[in-house]
Design brief:
This protein is α/β, with parallel strands linked by helices. The chain has 15 helices and 16 strands. β7 and β8 form a beta hairpin.
């Protein structure tokens, strides 16, 4: 294990950035996509299978893990890395997003949030201090500040209130976390779609000082055009010598657009959730394996992919096991989707290093626009 956290910017192409994050448990090549392991598992995948796709880091969820099995229990059992058998870096979110989505089950105050568990109705309190404690107990390599993330659309006054509360919570998170001694603490920029509020948030985060910075409060209902409008300026408000993380994004074209605008890290449940429901991401767009046209198709899902689903099985088989409700369908399609996402990140890394990101982006969109090739 390395002793400290650091970020090295290795190349740029326009605003797209190629870099490397050092953590106590190894490096993270950026731009990076983080598979989501909400409750201590990336659904339908073994940890070694996730690693085999090329993932350097996964995400864990503070809210779900604090409810079940409990952060103190995970700590007694050796921490989240040992508990889930993942030896590479883990980022844990603060729990704020999940708590805010509980609506009628929670009460918000300056101190924090009290809420009822969606599992059994038990009452919990989550504050910046408790969020830091939970993430320390889990043994996270990258810890996120506790924040409030309002859904969009929302009026400016509400977005401003939530942003300023998040900045006060960010200061308390920093104080509770202390100085980095291996793990890192990331601040989260808020401000919705308002440029002035985003600037105010970024300025306050820079004053507090963090090891990395996230762009939060996007992919919450505003649509891609509005999200890209914010990303045209928001990442540039954050320190250039620290990693920039766009939370909860997204579809492949969201990811390419975010990297183009200076984002280094992303996460989303989409590739795993889609895999379990029969949707596969390919270079030619999304393929729905439920469709009857695949029933007699002997071809692989994506001839350019090296995952087990594409190497060893036909579209006809994938269609069959999906329609039959067999567990292997979710396993194979999840592996494929995560492989596609990691391959996409590797292709962008290579394009940035070679100074040809614009050509890569054009080819990416052209191939997807051509659509899936029908069987001959």
């Amino acid at each position: 294990m390395t002793a400290s956290f650091g970020f090295k910017l290795k190349a740029t192409d326009g605003r797209a950035r190629l870099g490397e994050i050092e953590t106590p448990r190894g490096r993270i090549r950026t731009p990076a996509f983080m598979p989501v392991g909400t409750a201590g598992t990336v659904k339908a995948m073994l940890p070694e299978s996730v690693a085999a796709t090329g993932a350097d880091i996964v995400l864990g969820n503070t809210y779900h893990l604090m409810l079940r099995p409990g952060a103190e229990r995970v700590a007694r059992l050796g921490g989240l890395h040992a508990f889930m058998n993942w030896r590479r870096p883990i980022l844990t979110d603060s729990g704020g997003f999940q708590v805010m989505s509980l609506a009628g089950l929670r009460k918000l105050t300056e101190k924090g949030v009290t809420f009822k568990s969606h599992i059994d109705g038990a009452r919990f309190e989550l504050t910046p201090e408790r969020s830091m404690e939970i993430q320390r107990l889990l043994g996270s390599d990258i810890v996120m500040c506790f924040d409030e993330c309002p859904a969009l659309p929302a009026d400016t006054a509400e977005v401003a209130r939530a942003m300023r509360l998040s900045m006060r919570w960010a200061e308390r998170s920093r104080a509770a976390f202390g100085e980095p001694t291996g793990p890192a603490l990331f601040g989260i920029q808020q401000g919705g779609l308002d440029r002035d509020l985003r600037a105010e948030s970024a300025e306050r985060l820079r004053e507090i000082g963090f090891e990395g910075y996230a762009v939060g409060g996007l992919a919450v209902g505003e649509g891609q055009a509005a999200m890209f409008g914010v990303l045209d300026y928001a990442p540039q408000m954050l320190p250039a010598d620290k990693p920039r993380y766009l939370m909860g994004v997204g579809k492949p074209d969201d990811i390419v657009g975010a990297v183009k605008r200076g984002i280094d890290m992303m996460d989303c449940v989409l590739p795993t959730r889609s895999g379990r429901t029969g949707q596969a991401f390919t270079r030619r767009g999304v393929v729905n394996l439920k469709n009857a046209r695949h029933a007699d198709d002997p071809r692989p899902l994506d001839a350019g992919c090296a995952c087990p689903a594409c190497r060893g099985y036909s579209r006809a088989y994938l269609h069959h096991v999906l329609r039959a409700g067999e567990m292997i369908s979710g396993m194979l399609l999840t592996w494929h989707n995560l492989q596609y996402y990691q391959d996409l990140m590797a292709e962008m890394c290579a394009a940035i290093a070679a100074g040809r990101f614009e050509a890569f982006e054009a080819g990416f969109h052209e191939t997807r626009a051509a659509g899936d090739i029908a069987p001959t």
